[in-house]
Specification:
The chain is an alpha+beta fold and about 170 residues long. The chain has six helices and four strands, in the order H-H-E-H-E-H-H-E-E-H. Strand 3 and strand 4 form a beta hairpin. Helix 4 runs antiparallel to helix 5. It starts with a helix and ends with a helix.
C-alpha cells in the first residue's frame, strides 16, 4: 500500500505543478497590452519595421505611371495577410481613386505569377518583383519619377500608415 500511495502523491504534485505553470503563463499573457499582443501576432503592426526598408526599385517607372504615387500589392488568393489587408486597400482605392496608381502583382499560382512578372517588367518593377515575389501581403508605395520606395508594409491593415505617405506625396506634386 505504501507504493501506490507514493505514486498517487507524485502524480498529484505533478498535476499541481502543471496547473501552476499554466496559470502563470496565462497571467503573463493577460498582462500584455493590446499593442504588445498585436505586435506579437503581426511584427509589422504599430511600429512598422517593414516600413523602414527604404530602397529603390531600380530606377524610374514606366511613362504611363508618371505623375501619381504607385501602390504595389504583392497578392495571393491563398494568403491570410492579403485577406487581412484587402479591406484597407479597398478603402484606399475608394478614397484616392484616380489620384494614385494601384498595381496588383498576383502570385496565386504559376500562371498568374508569370503574368505578374511580365507586368512588373513592363512597368519598370522587374527588380522589385524579383526581390519580393514571395512576400505576399506586402504593399509598397513608390515614387514613379525616381523609383524610390516611400513606404513598404507587410500585413499592415492600418489605413493611416498608407494615407500619411500618400497624402504627403500628393501634396509635393
Amino acid at each position: 500500500m505504501y507504493k501506490p500511495s507514493k505514486l498517487w502523491l507524485s502524480l498529484s504534485l505533478s498535476g499541481l505543478m502543471f496547473a501552476g505553470a499554466f496559470v502563470a503563463a496565462t497571467s503573463a499573457r493577460a498582462s500584455t497590452t493590446p499593442d504588445q499582443t498585436i505586435a506579437q501576432m503581426n511584427p509589422c503592426a504599430g511600429h512598422n519595421p517593414c516600413a523602414a526598408k527604404k530602397e529603390n526599385v531600380g530606377g524610374r517607372l514606366a511613362d504611363r505611371l508618371q505623375g501619381k504615387p504607385v501602390v504595389v500589392d504583392i497578392y495571393a488568393s491563398w494568403c491570410p495577410a492579403c485577406q487581412n489587408i484587402a479591406p484597407t486597400l479597398s478603402q484606399l482605392k475608394q478614397q484616392y481613386g484616380d489620384s494614385i496608381h494601384f498595381i496588383v502583382l498576383d502570385v496565386s499560382d504559376r500562371a498568374k505569377a508569370s503574368q505578374a512578372e511580365s507586368l512588373a517588367a513592363e512597368l519598370g518593377l522587374g527588380n522589385f518583383f524579383a526581390a519580393n515575389r514571395s512576400q505576399t501581403g506586402m504593399v509598397a508605395i513608390i515614387d514613379p519619377a525616381t523609383g524610390n520606395i516611400l513606404a513598404q508594409h507587410r500585413n499592415n491593415a492600418n489605413l493611416a500608415d498608407y494615407t500619411k505617405v500618400i497624402d504627403s506625396t500628393i501634396v509635393q506634386r
